[in-house]
Amino acid sequence: MAFATARSLALRGAVGHVIDVQVDVSPGLVTTTLVGRVDKSLSEARDRVRMAINNDCGRWPATKRVTILLAPADLPKTGTHYDLAIAIAVLAADQQQKDLTPDLLDGWAFIGELSVSGALRPVPGVLPMAIAAAAHGITRVFVPEPQAAEAGLVPGMTVFGVRSLAQVSAVLRGAEVPDAPPVVAASATSLSTWSGEGRLDDVDMTDLDGLEDVRYAVEVAAAGAHPLMLVGPRGTGKTSIAERIPSILPDLTIEQSLEVTALHSVTGVLPDGAGLLRRPPWFAPHHSASAASVLGGGTGKVRPGQVSLAHHGVLFLDEFPHFRSDVIEAMRQPLESGEVTIARGEETATYPARSLVVLAANPCPCGNFHGLTGGSCDCTEQQRAHYRRKLSGPILDRVDIWMEVRPQHRRRSGSWGEPPESSADVRARVTEARLRQAHRFRDCTWELNSSCPGPALAERWPLERDAQRLVDQELAAGTLTRRGLTRVQRLAWTVADCAGVDRPGEPEARIALALRSDDASRALPAHLIRVAS
User: Fold this and answer.
1) 3-state secondary structure 255-271
2) Peptide linkage before 155 cis (omega within 30 of 0)
3) Magnesium chelatase ChlI-like catalytic domain: which residues (predicted)?
4) CA quadruple 514, 518, 523, 528: dihedral, nearest 10
5) Long-range contacts of 494-497 (CB under 8 A, 24+ apart)
6) Predicted pLDDT at 190
7) What percentage of the chain has pLDDT greater than the value 70?
8) Contact 38/77 with Cβ under 8 angstroms?
9) What are phi and psi of 191, to 5 degrees?
């Protein structure tokens, strides 16, 4: 009886789990058995691995009974990346190559799909697998050659990017490596400027004329990662404002970069050699997008949606009332908890989704309604009511900032007033506000005000007495719900952080109430807005 164990990784959501690929080769009825809650794509590994061994690295033990167990057996296994671990464990257990013994597999992880020729093919999710391997004390990993740089992003991980099964066998045995030496990736600290769906490096806040109150609201939203709703007639600049929000967000930290890049790796959208994402990602799905593409899901295998790919970045949902009702209602979970849980059959996955969600809507279906003036809108009041009804109360209650975007006259260059601030200037203030939050929450599991639980706010970081009394009056009057009360408290703290105030008082509470309210009578204080004169 011969036995060997090689290690690979399973992904549940974006979290990796170490899998022991145990192979027993023994006399008996000639058959190959693969067990351990495997799906169809993994069941087909028996044929892929058999042909790969025969064509590239020896012969399959055709006269023996081969039993392959992927443990733990209660964890669902899916994907083709187990091929390499299975093949190496079979070779070590059968000991066709006398110097390839089972003990040589200790401390290694094996990731890659095999072709019938024995060549290794890239697979999605290499980065989160390498992160999980490092967390379990595995410091060496074999991956397909094109993905060596991706796996090398994990600090302290020695990565061998190989082309074939024969190369893996040669490295383990210390023999001469055929074809070409493997790519050994250095510990990667390289960062890329790739930011998801589209690059927005050519936009800046200086491009926006006027809109001073909206600019302030956007700055507060960026500082605390507060969900933001922009409402206004078409052509007033809602999309232009949203596109510039990534430009005022600070660079991702190394931890955030690893987390975001791992999500893109799971989806398979990470370009080869892209490195860590340095800038916050930006995603703006079309209003015809399905719930699976926005929230995550799919058939056969659960994948993260754009709300998770925009983690630590910006998710912009333009024409929000035109999105499908199931998408609108499903946005409750990420807006409330900052994560998305998807269940498909026996598979359940939870993905982080703590992005800055920006919603945009017109005041009516045609988009021409200008408040009391009516504009050139021909919609009936019934049509407007039906349009607004798609924005359910529970969704809007989870949006922290509601801002009306009004038509602006174009500022003639040099004619009056100061030029608009640049994104760099605003980003400096946003960064400073986030540093204050990071210091305040240094012993907590969250970093920003928008993630702070209500009980923790009430117990450890209450508002000043006058501020709390003002907010409680709104609650008693019915203009705030209990959820809205917590969100106003969070917003007041962000207003204070932006202003450099140690603790929110009545002025900060009034500003928070004005930002959250869609009542035009609640204007922002003039001293916060750069009004041209």
Assistant:
1) HHHHHHHHHHHHHCCCC
2) no
3) 204-409
4) 60
5) 494/220, 494/223, 494/224, 494/226, 494/433, 494/437, 494/449, 494/450, 495/220, 497/223, 497/224, 497/433, 497/434, 497/436, 497/437, 497/449
6) 47
7) 89
8) yes
9) -120, 145
Contact 471/513 with Cβ under 8 angstroms? yes
DSSP-assigned beta bridge partners for residue 127: none
pLDDT band at 137 (very low <50, low <70, confident <90, very high): very high
Please, what's the largest Cα pairwise distance for the chain? 92
Residue 523: predicted pLDDT: 55
Report the 3 state secondary structure along 84-95: HHHHHHHHHHHC
Q: Rounded to whole angstroms, how far apart are CA atoms 452 and 486? A: 9
Q: Are 360 and 238 in contact (CB under 8 A)?
A: yes
The answer to whether residues 127 and 262 touch, using CB atoms and an 8 Å cutoff, is yes
pLDDT of residue 317: 95
Look-up: residue for tokens 């671990």?
85
Phi and psi of 231, rounded to 5°? -125, 130
How many other CB atoms are found less than 10 A from the CB of residue 365? Answer: 18
Residue 520 pLDDT level (bands cut at 50, 70, 90): very low
Please say whether the beta carbons of 86 and 6 come within 8 A.
yes
Closest CA to 199 of 87, 255, 281, 142: 281
- Using alpha carbons, select from 490, 227, 247 the residue that is nearest to residue 359: 227
**Measured distance between the N- and C-terminal CA atoms of the chain, rounded to whole angstroms:** 89
Q: How far apart are CA 205 and CA 210, in angstroms?
A: 11
- Write down the pLDDT at residue 143: 95
Q: Is the pLDDT of residue 417 over 80?
A: no
Residue 131 has pLDDT above 90, yes or no: yes
User: What is d(CA 80, CA 43) in angstroms, rounded to the nearest whole number?
Assistant: 9
Q: Is the preceding peptide bond at 72 cis, omega within 30 degrees of 0?
A: yes
Report residue 245's pLDDT band, with 50, 70 and 90 as the boundaries: very high
What's at 10, amino acid-wise? A
The pair of structure tokens assigned to 477 is: 């009057």
399 pLDDT tier (thresholds 50, 70, 90): very high
| CA atoms within 13 Å, Cβ hemisphere of 42 | 22
Q: For residue range 25-69, what is the model confidence (pLDDT) as tens digits?
A: 998 888 899 999 888 878 889 999 999 999 988 889 988 899 999
- State the Cα–Cα distance between residues 433 and 450, nearest whole angstrom: 13
pLDDT at 465 over 70: yes
Whole-number pLDDT of residue 511: 94
Whole-model pTM over 0.70: yes
CA 53 to chain centre: 38
Cα 415 to Cα 236: distance, rounded to the nearest angstrom? 22
CA separation for the pair 222, 241 (Å, rounded)? 12
